[in-house]
């Protein structure tokens, strides 16, 4: 028998405050050390928000683009003890570059208004409840239901942001308050405009949640999925007919919490890794689970149904993750792009390597989400498995039909973040459009934004916009098309 909702909410609130109180006592006893690579060099936070119209442009910005390239990431305002700061937990900051009519109009950075951030900055709290045991919202930023939303996993609601980057409210889009966690990686079905997401709650370790939200932002249904060990579920994948649930080997860890970790999740080789296929509209009993060898997947590339009834999923697979460090995820392990084929007849899954180059931040043309596709974009890792040794990297495009890769190396002094594909309006070819990314100087000089012709990546940028300041390396990036925002959205 479930607890009545107000009581359950009150208990969670009390539990959350108790955990925070205990954690504060524990953290005050951990010796101070300034040593944390995620607070230095290209990761170091910017101390101020910026706004500038003084931008230098090389090359030609496509005149059709009317929107902003928004990138979100951690930018801690204060860190009590760098020894236990975890990169995933920093206060969220959005960076935006506004492009219109072939010109770069402005660059702006602004904090995301989580309650903890507003308090630190002595700003009024924004409306709505933040939910979540920890509230920084720092992981993804999307355009959905005509509005811009900043997202994080593990419990906190999305924060609505306007086109000037001001935080407006905490809310699960346009839904009533269902008291359910959300994810940083929802997937939008290109046919319906609906969102599908698999979410987990930092305070609930025996279930994860599938949420289906319609194109207007209203919760359509949700499914509670029983699990063991409190798995971290960073992403999922969808096909035209089902959602793929990743129940893998990074789990909630009491031991990690007792070590003072701000993100108490750790590699657990004893957990049975499995991927579940849940038909849209189905219940937890309809999930077909496929056991796999231990691994972790932060991000999927795409998935689709085959005519045979089998299902394909492509994803960046880590041989392990969150093994030792309580400061960040980057450690020595194998990372490769793999194809999983789920055989509905035998109940078995086959795995093949599509690319053994160390890579992350997989992206596609979003119009092909859940559909057969040809072009898979990602960025290489260079020496990124050691956060103290940062070197230049590349943007890559894998042609899945020819199994050939085209790439562009930014030079020893430049590190590109996530490169996103923006389709040319009216384009027919899957790869007719541009790749755009924030690119960071290894020597910590000012950053830049680059635009590449997605059909000629190796030729390098067709436009480079030099920013006035350094943008710290962060998480996810999206093109926010201002023509798709609600009229008078502010
Ligand atoms: Fe992510």
Provide a brief overview of the structure.
The chain contains three helices and 33 strands.
Unreliable sequence segments: none
| Average pLDDT, all residues | 92
Supply Rg: 21 Å
SS field, number of helical segments: 3
Let me know the largest β-sheet: 6 strands, antiparallel
Number of strands: 33
In CATH, the architecture of the domain at 31-355 is 5 Propeller
List the quaternary state of the chains.
single chain
Task: State the distance separating the first and last CA atoms.
Answer: 43 Å
The helix/strand class is: mainly beta
Helix content: under 10%
Categorize the overall geometry: globular
Query: How is the CATH topology of the domain at 31-355 named?
Result: Tachylectin-2, Chain A
CATH class of the domain at 31-355: Mainly Beta
User: Can you list the ligands bound to this structure?
Assistant: fe (ii) ion
The percent range for strand residues is: 35-45%
